[in-house]
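User: I've been trying to design a sequence by hand for this structure and keep getting stuck. Would you show me what you'd pick, starting by listing the structure so we're on the same page?

Assistant: Good idea, let's start from the same input. This is the structure you sent:
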């Protein structure tokens, strides 16, 4: 690991400059969809090479320059990606496991969202989540009134009771939604950064193929307990137990959806089908999510992969 202070400063300035270039490129519509994911790369690299103090200094300097050059909106985005990048880099430098790196990236993403949310409320006195809920409810009510004018049967579509129920569930599920988005953000940065870090000669943990994803079976038993709680205890709307049950249920739904998609990839691999079929299955998994979630549960509970491998060997 380099010890030369001059080299440390030079490389720090270079990485900060590259970071700012990516930030500026992410201002270009269309191109920003690609460049934003590479924004944390220089800070990940620097954080792997140097200690936390040096990495923190370069990170802070990069964020300040980004704010000065691009303004508050892009500066906030730069802040988030810089924090996540530095966190991932330090986790790799310390030789942490793949699971630790993913969790660290998720927590850093969550920290970014929470800080942004709290700061926004502090300076604008507007709760963007509540405002979003009100706008959604207003849109649904407008749609309901339009259906009434057109003479469409409301019992099959929207009713005030259905709208209230949907809004209650949406409001209660905000925590799990933020956690899931934080996880996706962290994973996307890891997926885009690790191959490039390898090309730069950096040793990074090797993640297994997505088709090999296997959730712990204990999650299935916990899910059954959560379902039992919703079916038999039936927590009252708005209570702490209700919020916990809704969020756990949504988190498990997302996990089993991933398990189901993973099985599709495994099936395609074992049957030696074209890889494109696996990705078509991934896209179709969204509209067919109910079936894919069930597939994930069955795969986890009955070990479909072992049965599939056994049949293949025969």
């Amino acid at each position: 690991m380099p010890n030369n202070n001059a080299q440390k400063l030079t490389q720090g300035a270079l990485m900060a400059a590259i970071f700012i270039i990516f930030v500026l490129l992410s201002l270009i519509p269309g191109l920003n969809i690609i460049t934003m994911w590479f924004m944390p790369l220089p800070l990940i690299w620097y954080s792997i090479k140097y200690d936390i103090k040096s990495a923190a200094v370069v990170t802070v300097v990069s964020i300040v320059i980004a704010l000065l050059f691009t303004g508050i909106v892009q500066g906030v985005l730069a802040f988030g990606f810089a924090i996540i990048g530095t966190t991932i880099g330090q986790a790799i430098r310390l030789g942490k496991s793949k699971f630790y790196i993913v969790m660290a990236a998720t927590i850093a993403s969550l920290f970014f969202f929470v800080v942004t949310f709290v700061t926004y409320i502090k300076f604008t006195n507007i709760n963007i989540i509540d405002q979003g809920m009100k706008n959604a409810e207003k849109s649904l009510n407008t749609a309901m009134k339009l259906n009434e004018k057109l003479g469409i049967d409301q019992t099959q579509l929207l009713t005030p009771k259905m709208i209230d129920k949907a809004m209650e569930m949406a409001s209660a599920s905000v925590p799990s939604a933020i956690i899931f988005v934080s996880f996706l953000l962290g994973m996307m940065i890891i997926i885009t950064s690790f191959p490039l870090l390898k090309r730069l000669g950096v040793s990074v943990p090797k993640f297994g193929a997505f088709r090999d994803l296997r959730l712990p079976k204990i999650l299935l038993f916990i899910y059954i307990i959560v379902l039992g709680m919703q079916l038999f205890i039936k927590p009252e709307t708005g209570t702490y137990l209700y919020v916990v049950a809704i969020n756990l249920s949504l988190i498990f739904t997302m996990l089993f959806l991933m398990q189901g998609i993973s099985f599709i990839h495994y099936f395609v691999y074992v049957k030696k089908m074209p890889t494109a079929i696996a990705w078509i299955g991934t896209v179709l998994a969204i509209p067919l999510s109910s079936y894919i979630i069930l597939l994930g549960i069955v795969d986890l509970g009955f070990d479909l992969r072992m049965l599939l491998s056994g049949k293949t060997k025969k």
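That's my pick for every position. To get oriented when you compare it with your attempt: The mean pLDDT is 85. The chain is about 80% helix and 0% strand.
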